[in-house]
Amino acid sequence: MTTAAYDTDVLVVGGGPVGLAAAIEARLAGYDVVVVEPRQVPVDKACGEGLMPGAVRALERLGVRPDGHPLAGIRYLDPTRRVTHVFRGRAGLGVRRTTLHAALAERAGDLGIERRDARVTTLEQDADAVTAAGVRARWLLGCDGLHSTVRRLARLEAPARGPRRYGTRRHFRVEPWADVVEVHWGDRAEAYVTPVAAHLVGVALLGPPRTDFTSTLAAFPALAARLAGAEPDGPVRGAGPLLQRTSRRTRGRVRLVGDASGYVDALTGEGLRVGFAQAAAAVATLRDDPDRYERAWSASTRDYRYLTSGLVTAATSPARRGIVPLATRVPALFGTIVERLAT
Fold first, then answer.
1. If you write DSSP's letter for every residue of 241-252 in order, what string do you get?
2. 293: containing domain
3. How many domains does the chain contain in total?
4. Is the link from the previous residue into 163 a cis peptide, with omega within 30 of 0?
5. Average pLDDT of 58-72?
6. Are 51 and 59 a contacting pair, CB within 8 Å?
7. Taking CA atoms, which of 59, 155, 297, 304 is between 20 and 30 Å from 274?
8. Which bin fits 210, alpha (ψ -120 to 50), beta or left (φ > 0)?
9. Selection from 106, 109, 130 nearest residue 120 by Cα
10. Residue 192 burial (CB < 10 Å; 0-12/13-18/19+)?
C-alpha cells in the first residue's frame, strides 16, 4: 500500500507481545508494517503470565496458538479463606512469556512483517507522515511498554498520582497443584501463582517499593511450603513502577497502545487482554479522526481502569484485610468482577 513518499504504512515501536499483535492486526488489514525493536526474540518480562479467556480468543483470531497450561479460573486466598471462580465460558491459558513472544514473532515473520533492530531516540511528524528510527510512515503505533519513549517524545505523559507498586517474578520447576491462577493475599503484597507448563509454575509478587522476592515469598507460609525444594528456573525479574498515566493516547499520527498508553496495576491480571483490544482498535481507526481511537481506547479499558483502580485503592488501605473475606462471603460478586475482566 505504500508509495515512494513512505517507507511503510505502519511503524510499530516495540516488539513485545502487544507490539507484535498490533503489527499482525495491521498486516491482516492490508497495511505494510515495520516493527522497531532492539531486543532479540524472545524477550522475557516480569509478569503474571496468565492469559484471560478474552486474550486467548484475541490470539486465535490473529492466528497465534502458543503452548501453555489451561486455566480454569481464578482463586483468591488468605491464611484462612479461599474463594474460586471458574470461568463460565472457555478456559484461559498460562503461557510462559518467552513462549508467547516467540509464537507471536513467528506469526509476524510468516506474514512478512519487517523487523528492524533499532532504538527510537527522536520522533518527527507533519500532516502527512511520522518519522522515527529512520523510518518514515503514515502512522506510528507506540507499543514500547511501561517506560515508553514514544509517550515521552510525543509529550503524552501525565503525572502518575497514586500508590507506587512494583512486581517481581520467578519460575519454579514443580508440577502445578491447581488448574487456576492463585492469588495469595498477604499483609503488604500479593503472590500470583500461574501454571505455565506441565512441570513449571510462575510466581509473581506485587507490592510496594523494595519488595524483595525471597523475603516476601517467605511471608506466605503455605505457598513457601509448596515450593520447598523446587528448583528455580531462571532469575528473579522485576518491573515497575506499575502506575503510568497519559494525557491522551494520540498526537497527530501517533497512537499509544498497551502499557505505553497508561497502566494502573497488574493486580487483576488482564493487561494483555486489554492490550490486544487496544491494538485492534488502533488499527481499525487509523484512517479516522484521532478522537475515534480515543473513544475506542476508553471503551476497551473502562472495566480495567475502574475495577482495577478500586481494587488497588482497597489493597493499599486498611480495607486490604477485608478483600478475601468479602469475596468469600459474596462469591457471586467476585465471579461477576472476574468475568467482566476476563472477557
1. ---BEES-SEET
2. 8-52+64-69+94-161+243-319
3. 1
4. no
5. 96
6. yes
7. 155
8. left
9. 130
10. buried
75 within a domain of the structure (yes/no): no
- In angstroms, the CA 141 to CA 145 distance is 12
Could you tell me if residue 1 is inside a domain? no
Beta-carbon-side half-sphere exposure of residue 120 (alpha carbons within 13 Å): 28
In sequence order, the 6+-apart residues with CB closer than 8 A to the CB of 155 are 251
Q: Which pLDDT tens digit goes with each residue over 143-186?
A: 999 899 999 999 999 988 877 888 899 999 999 999 999 999 99
Does 147 map to a domain? Answer: yes
Query: Is residue 226 over pLDDT 60?
Result: yes
Q: Is residue 200 part of a domain?
A: no
pLDDT recorded at residue 132? 97
CATH of the domain at 287: 3.50.50.60
Work out the average pLDDT over 25-50.
93
Confidence (pLDDT) at 315: 74
**Residue 294 grid cell:** 480515543
